[in-house]
Specification:
Elements lengths: L18 E5 L2 E6 L27 E2 L30 E5 L5 E7 L9 H15 L5 E7 L3 E9 L5 H5 L14 H9 L6 E6 L9 H11 L3 E5 L16 E4 L9 H16 L3 E10 L3 E8 L5 E8 L6 E7 L5 E2 L3 E3 L2 E8 L4 E9 L10 E9 L5 E7 L16 E8 L2 E2 L4 E7 L9 E6 L10 E2 L3 E5 L8 E10 L6 E3 L15 E2 L6 E3 L4 E11 L19 E5 L5 E7 L16 E2 L10 H5 L1 E2 L14 E7 L7
Parallel strand pairs: 5-6, 5-8, 8-9, 9-10, 25-29
Antiparallel strand pairs: 1-2, 2-4, 3-4, 6-7, 11-19, 12-18, 13-17, 13-19, 14-15, 14-18, 16-17, 20-21, 21-22, 21-26, 23-24, 23-27, 27-31, 28-30, 32-33, 33-36, 34-35
Helix pairs in contact: 1-5, 3-4
Length: 632
């Protein structure tokens, strides 16, 4: 029975105000229904804390008062009277903890030494810990054939972040085996509300007792985020990420460094789990002893701003400094393993920031590029937010890709309203080597033409995946969004969806003149990966051109047998590339131009009048002759 305090008004004693009790590990908020000043509170227990959150559930207290062993301070006997039936009753609520507990499981087996994986994991976790909200709880387990708790559950504060990072082992084990089941069993023991598991591994074999672990994850709906390396972790692990996500770290690209991708993945996990928004505003690569650059900071709310120089050996950096838009120079950078960085918090001046770095003269990195990136973290969603996801999840990896093409989606918003006219590009990294053409750069569109985008102006940009890898495996996606050289705009307020009478297909949200420029911006984000259980030969052409859905008659010349036509160019592989050629046919009966009758009955327009296809999305037109007069 919960302990509840009752009171009656006393001429000498002030009635107790709402307070909290600890009940079975939960905070119980005691709120009086009478005329009690709720702005002041007296704690029944010195360890309890007054909560300000709204009640999630209330129950009228009806049991007579009983003394609780957890009650530290004695209560005056005048305050322990039972309320009569005509008096208002006390109420209590259970307030659950709002911070997240992270269980980070690190595969420390010898295989993690390949391609500097363990070095990248350590460096990426430094930023991950730095981005965790204050009050989060962190537990780190390292495992090979056995599991070791390297960091007991610890609450994150601004003062202990470096110490938390210092608990991560510096090197891998000599042990080649990885008992993922052991680590998951330890992490899932007693897992409760507001807890998430991050597994970083590359196990090639299926987990023992896999069905039991999956049943536990499904029953409790535990969010598990799996970070794996290409073609290594067993596909069965994808089902464990049902309530979290699976991310495959890119290692086969000359463009994207594994450390950069891993940092973006962990930032995406924080954004997915917390109310905070982590955004990447800038990334530039260098390979010289001295360099400088600029970036645009467009936030106006209190924000954490992290500017990082990623370098193989931070001891070769002579200095790294930044200058804000007001001209104030910031010179006190911090040095950590493989990085030199600044971190600023609060209201920061928006505009163009600049940075300048110099290495010692004997520093030469012939094979390694350095990079500078800028990341922000805010607890409000006032900036431009972007995320990317696929129509096929990591869990759903079966089927021939050509039967149902995979679609990539990007959501670009600010204050919940869509960003229009932005340039959105998706980088798709496929399983296989670079020689196999393992990367596509896809332009995402918000055009409402139906292939695949349905509604124009809703801030959801999309594109088909035009090709697939030679072998089964994980497909990684990454999003780069910009203001499109000043063309991006945002609505000034919400509007309703409307149909454009000039368009035959899809829908369009009309904003008219109620938009304003977004200003210059850049966003870079990683999204969850998807898995396909079979490869596709390079000779296979699975994707046909997309359908032309907006062919229109733009003009008729009454003095001749010519008409003017216009349309939007399709892609060669759905919405990617360009088609090989056009065929235009005409007839006096509309139904004759559908299906197989198009080639059998349709009258072919001379090819000299038909233009060559342009790239997807281009507007095209032509003037053609029709065979009979008065039939248009």
């Amino acid at each position: 029975v919960p302990q509840v305090l009752y009171y009656t008004e006393s001429p000498t004693l002030r009635p107790p105000t709402p307070a909290n009790l600890i009940l079975n590990g939960s905070i119980v908020d005691i709120a009086a229904a009478g005329d009690v000043n709720e702005k002041s509170a007296e704690s029944v227990n010195n360890n309890s804390t007054v909560t300000q959150s709204p009640p999630t559930s209330t129950t009228a207290a009806s049991a007579p008062p009983k003394r609780n062993r957890r009650q530290a301070a004695p209560v005056h006997p005048h305050l322990m009277e039972v309320i009569p039936e005509d008096k208002p009753r006390l109420k209590f609520t259970y307030s659950l903890l709002s911070t997240t507990k992270y269980h980070v499981l690190l595969d420390q087996s010898s295989g993690m030494a390949d391609n500097s994986r363990w070095i990248n994991v350590k460096r990426a976790l430094f930023r991950f810990i730095d981005l965790l909200p204050v009050g989060s709880r962190l537990n780190i387990l390292a495992f090979g054939s056995a599991v070791k708790e390297v960091l007991p559950t610890t609450t994150v504060t601004e003062l202990n972040r470096d110490g938390l990072f210092g608990r991560i082992p510096r090197r891998v084990l000599d042990d080649a085996s990885s008992c993922v089941e052991c680590a998951l069993k330890e992490a899932l023991r007693g897992v409760g509300h507001n807890e998430a598991v991050i597994l970083i591994s590359g196990v090639p074999t299926q987990m023992q007792n896999y069905a039991r672990v999956l049943a536990q994850v499904t029953e409790k709906q535990i969010p598990i985020f799996i970070v794996t390396y290409p073609s290594t972790i067993h596909p069965s692990y994808t089902h464990l990420s049902r309530f979290g996500g699976l991310y495959s770290v890119v290692e086969n690209s000359a463009k994207l460094h594994p450390l950069t991708h891993l940092q973006e993945i962990l930032a995406n996990i924080i954004t997915s789990t917390e109310g905070d928004t982590v955004e990447k505003l800038h990334e530039t690569h260098y390979n010289s002893l001295a360099f400088a650059g600029t970036f645009n900071y467009d936030r106006e709310d209190p924000t954490d701003l992290i500017i990082t120089l990623n370098v193989p050996d931070e001891e070769k950096v002579e200095f790294f400094e930044v200058k804000d838009p007001s001209g104030k120079k910031r010179i006190f950078s911090k040095f950590e393993d493989g990085m030199v960085y600044f971190k600023f918090s609060g209201h920061l001046p928006s505009g163009i920031w600049s940075y300048h770095a110099k290495l010692y003269h004997d520093s030469v990195f012939p094979d390694t590029k350095m990079s500078v990136d800028v990341v922000t973290k805010s607890d409000s969603n006032t900036g431009i937010s972007v995320d990317i996801f696929a129509s096929k999840s990591a869990e759903d990896g079966s089927g021939i890709p050509g039967d149902e093409p995979v679609v990539l989606f990007a959501r670009i918003t600010r204050h919940g309203l869509p960003i229009l006219g932005a340039k959105a590009s998706a980088e798709l990294y496929m399983p296989g080597s670079l020689e196999d053409g393992s990367m596509y750069t896809l332009d995402l569109h918000d055009n409402g033409l139906g292939y695949p985008d349905i509604t124009s102006g809703d801030g959801v940009y999309s594109a088909y995946v035009p090709g697939y890898g030679l072998e089964p495996g994980y497909y990684s996606v990454r999003l780069v969004v910009s203001d499109n050289n000043g063309r991006a705009v945002q609505p000034k307020g919400p509007v309703t969806e409307s149909r454009d009478p000039e368009e035959c297909c899809g829908s369009r949200i009309q904003f008219g003149n109620t938009t304003a420029p977004t200003g210059a911006f850049l966003r870079i984000a990683a999204g969850p990966s998807f898995y396909l259980d079979r490869g596709v030969p390079l000779t296979s052409d699975l994707a046909p051109p997309s359908r032309i859905s907006d062919l229109s008659l733009r003009g008729v010349r009454n003095t001749s047998l010519t008409v003017d036509l216009a349309w939007t160019a399709p892609g060669g592989d759905l919405d990617f590339g360009k088609a090989h050629k056009y065929e235009i046919r005409c007839h006096t009966i509309r139904s004759t131009l559908t299906g197989v009758l198009f080639e059998e009955k349709g009258i072919l327009i001379h090819s000299e009048s038909v233009p060559s296809p342009l790239s997807y999305g281009s507007r095209q037109s032509c003037t053609v002759n029709v065979p009979w007069p008065n039939q248009v």
